[in-house]
Design brief:
The protein has 468 residues and is an alpha/beta fold. The protein is built from 14 helices and 22 strands.
Amino acid sequence: MSNNFDLTIIGSGPGGYVCAIRAAQLGMKVAIVEKWPSFGGTCLNIGCIPSKAMLYASEIFMQAKHNFASLGIESDNIRLNLAKMMAHKDNVVKANTQGIEYLFKKNKITSFSGTGSIEGKGRVKVKSESAKEQIINSKNIVIATGSVSANLPGLEIDEKQIISSTGALSLDKVPQNMLVIGAGVIGLELGSVWARLGAKITIVEFLDHILPGMDKELSKYFLRNLKKQGFDIRLSTKVSAINKSDNGLIITTESAKGEGKATIKADIALVAIGRKPFTGGLGLEKIGIELDEKGRIKTDKSYQTNIENIYAIGDVIRGPMLAHKASEEGVVVAEILAGKAAHVNYDIIPSVVYTEPEIASVGKSEEQLKQEGINYKVGKFPFSANGRAKAMLAADGFVKILADATTDRVLGGHIIGHGAGEMIHEIALLMEFSGAGEDLALTCHAHPNMSEAVREAALALGDGALHI
């Protein structure tokens, strides 16, 4: 087999595998290098997919314990079989990673198992676990190695007592008390899983609010909701030390200003303070690829690094660390290499927090619009006034749409409620076509449906919503 390719991609996560498939569809001879035993990267193996399997399973468990009786479903002796729940999670991961393997075969993509590094322009070295080395010659190279969990200085993650998101997806029993360090997306999602299964969750967040970057009206609403769910949330607080004892962990906290020390006892501490680009072992320094102050690979508008024909996408470059953002960049790079015009619209990348209720946003927040001096208007509608939501015992939350005060062009959409991650996309599509609030308000929605609340919020941008 000839090791000469049009494109070689290092990393088979959502950015890398999508880039490979699109490039193959466009007629390129493509190779992909993956060091893990299965394809899909962090997202499919230890991130997005397994966490959503656990979130769904734990939500059903919670519904069975607390809501079924209200619906007339008598269910006695509801109990958790954690081993079976974990098996479900593992089966979901296996099905998805095998799906990527099938797509590679279908599109005649050659895969190399091992750690990839760039030896120079057009040369990728692959080193397998057996220490065998191969050289791939490639016209173009794409770095798509993703990110890893960030850690606190001086804190050792052992994945037993002090864990990352990876460890949080493979616990063999429900902890009695769990400390979550960080109130971002990962911390709240995984904290929600174990809270539903019976753990007492304490969240410590350095900032004075949860979900940094989210529209603050939604984050404040969700903070109240989490407290109702039993979460102990300590804002403007940092962890200064974690000591292991025979009876678990003793965590020392203090205010963000370094005052007022307190202690928390926990069985497990989950470090969820964010992620950082993974570029180790790629040989970037040797070939002179430039990084920015945050350790991200610098690229131009075509995702090319300062070295010709070497590109980078996904979590290793600037922008939100989202799987779908990486996939979009992978498609665009493949199309640029094929001579097509392509771009990513970074103003319209949805983000979703898969808690219950879900939180979804696209476009600008109110804080951003104020900071940019844009004159805007707000249309809101609560799910408590939506018939389908009440029928499903899912009346928490609201829809909020932001539009230009003069032109009515929609600038942002924010939803907190059951299924928010599905509903956000009609706002995203509207924005992609530079649509106005009136366009959405005039669009007939099926009844009864939770998405009617989206239309009602659009109506509220004009003469007013109908059902409130």
